[in-house]
């Protein structure tokens, strides 16, 4: 998290706000509620209280305007700049402006006013931009569901104002996982049109051959319709589809787009009803089979016929000597299977039918 | 004098202008004429600041990932500086 220079903050915990005008995109009551909920996000974790004024000068003056709107800090039409706010202080200090050329909504169909307001009011209270992609104070817009503050945001605002003396139980989002944490484990690994995608918590890393530095992004900012938690994933390059598994459901992605008719239940693949989760999955290009790992067993799904091979489940330990533990994620490259389990990855040779190398899970992330 | 300078393709020029505007607004790139932006020291150092902030590969170059990020919808408050 970052603060503004000189740690600008309100000296009084009772902060006033006033909404000067309204966007025609939403009902007045929706705008009032979005602003009030956005203020509550911050009052939940600090001693701050917010009092609404209907006339006169408030600490935080909230308004909608387009292009040049009176502060010589013009907006830019649709997209691009969505809003801005000024750090605590007299006059324009604390004032919060929304770009009226955006389309403001209550859901994820366009820019969600509540989320943008919560971010901007963070500025109005003294928070500057955070470099944590999972933080509310991260500069780039991203639609998320649930409580918007991450631990990073809470530490930042409490460094200015202290904690809420009467805290209500709030469940902050965990910070973005650190790729070089020696104990890092993966949720799932898949290829996607020549890139490697590694899922962990609400995030994924994207590795590209020409891009040595993995890029970390929120899953929901790329694929809003899939869950925040992925259990397993694999790519079927022939169909240009990536399958995502979470719980008993599966999603089919074609690039950024969700294939029609999904999500579906995993049992449609031929798995028995008692299977409630897939730990890992991997497509073996040389055989056209997809292996699905659950606990100590695995299944073989024939992509060409769309049916589960007979004689499964089979024991992982028996068919993959050296792999006597559950599998978090799996990938396949040029005759080698890579099994990821907790903070270790095992390189298994199909031809010699044994584990030939053991590495740290995050060695794939240049750590 | 014979010049080897070749006009930038219009798309490159647009990207360069977008980058210049982005860095001026969010990373305090000094205003005014900078000559050939891509080669100026100030321009490269501001790109590095932005790449460092967003945990991108710090190259000082206007690569695709950096440009992609500059084009995303965002808040108008600067990331760095007063």
Architecture overview:
The complex is a heterodimer of chains A (367) and B (82). Chain A has 367 residues and is mainly beta. Helices cover 13% and strands 33% of the residues of chain A. In chain A, the strands form 6 sheets. Chain A has a 5-stranded mixed beta sheet, covered by helices on one side. In chain A, a hairpin with a 4-residue loop joins β12 (232-236) and β13. In chain A, α1 (28-43) crosses α2 (113-125). The two termini of chain A are 24 Å apart. With 82 residues, chain B is mostly helical. Chain B has helices spanning 10-27, 41-53, 64-70; one strand spanning 74-75. The longest helix of chain B is centred in the first third of the chain and has 18 residues, at 10-27. Chain B is globular and about 30 Å long. The relative contact order of chain B is 0.17. Classes of the chains: A mainly beta (367), B mainly alpha (82). Chains A and B meet through β4, α2 and β11 of A and β1 of B. β4 (81-85) of chain A pairs parallel with β1 (74-75) of chain B, so a sheet runs across the interface.
List strands and helices in order, with pairings.
The complex is a heterodimer of chains A (367) and B (82).
Chain A: E1 14-19, H1 28-43, E2 49-52, E3 60-65, E4 81-85, E5 96-99, E6 104-105, E7 111-112, H2 113-125, H3 151-161, E8 188-192, E9 195-200, E10 203-208, E11 211-218, H4 219-222, E12 232-236, E13 241-246, E14 249-254, E15 257-258, E16 264-265, E17 280-284, E18 289-294, E19 297-302, E20 307-308, E21 314-315, H5 316-319, E22 329-333, E23 336-341, E24 344-349, E25 354-360
Parallel strand pairs in A: 1-2, 1-3, 3-5, 6-7
Antiparallel strand pairs in A: 4-5, 8-9, 9-10, 10-11, 12-13, 13-14, 14-15, 14-16, 17-18, 18-19, 19-20, 19-21, 22-23, 23-24, 24-25
Helix pairs in contact in A: 1-2
Chain B: H1 10-27, H2 41-53, H3 64-70, E1 74-75
